[in-house]
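pasting for ref
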Amino acid sequence: MKKLLVLLSILLIACSSPKMLESKVEEKPSVEHAIAKVNFAKEQNVANTLKFLASDENEGRDSGSKGIESASVFLENMMKENGIKPYFQSYRDTLSNFDKAAYNIVGFIEGNDPTLKNEYVIIGAHYDHIGKIAAVNGDDIANGANDNASGSTAVSEVMKYFAKHKTNKRSLIFAFFSAEEKGLLGSKHLAKRLKAANLDLYVMFNFEMIGVPMQNRDFLLYLTGFGKTNMASKLNEYAGEKVIGYVPAETKYQLFRASDNYPFFTEFEVPAQTVSTFDFENFDFYHKPDDEFELMDPKHMTNVVNTMIPVLESMMNKPTKEITINVK
């Protein structure tokens, strides 16, 4: 009996050792819909794209200016180099509602499912900014690194991922909008044009000002129009964690209506929302010359992209349209 008790004691001690407990923790079942973020976007590539778009060379990317032209060519070439087709006859979608020559840059990746490819997801960001403004400490270029070279950089990396892997069942439109700063003119133009063509739009997903992380939040990004759809809860479900959250500033400043998601919401009456990390507490240089590349956090931006790629992939590949507008 003593030998039996000794053996039992040894067994109990062994089972309660840190390694055994650690093993038990690892054996817990994962969240049902959890997916791992990818390691596709590289911090140096993110930094390179961001730095170019926000460079003095582009003179603040004012719509219709010489400064935005090089950014347009840069984005067109990126699409060409990655084998992305133009959605229209060319990548340039000329704005019909602006008095200068200005262009959305629009590319297309066909879905790989014979039925679902007839439905579309638009992923976008505006690449324009406000150009030259009153000088601050001798600097009159509003570079727009956070607003919105950061969002455009995120879209470019997502675009390159799907161009390489072609895992999208639904068809994808990637749109870089011009004249957002003039009153959402680029997205208004494109939304009307696609609506007139009877595009079957499932979701429009927009990146806006993701250049620096939020502080003291338990989520990575916030969503505008948070309560208008079930997008936040579904994306968090796909991620297996709370990636998307709510900040009061988005309601206070009516941010749902302030970015390029909104024209698609009004034209198509489908989920069309923006994610951002600019919460009015973490960045002081909105529409100022100091919105420069040097203040951005490419590591954070890379994390945003690599976290969101599989979440968006899951969203666009569901057999039914799970993300819906909330009916009150």
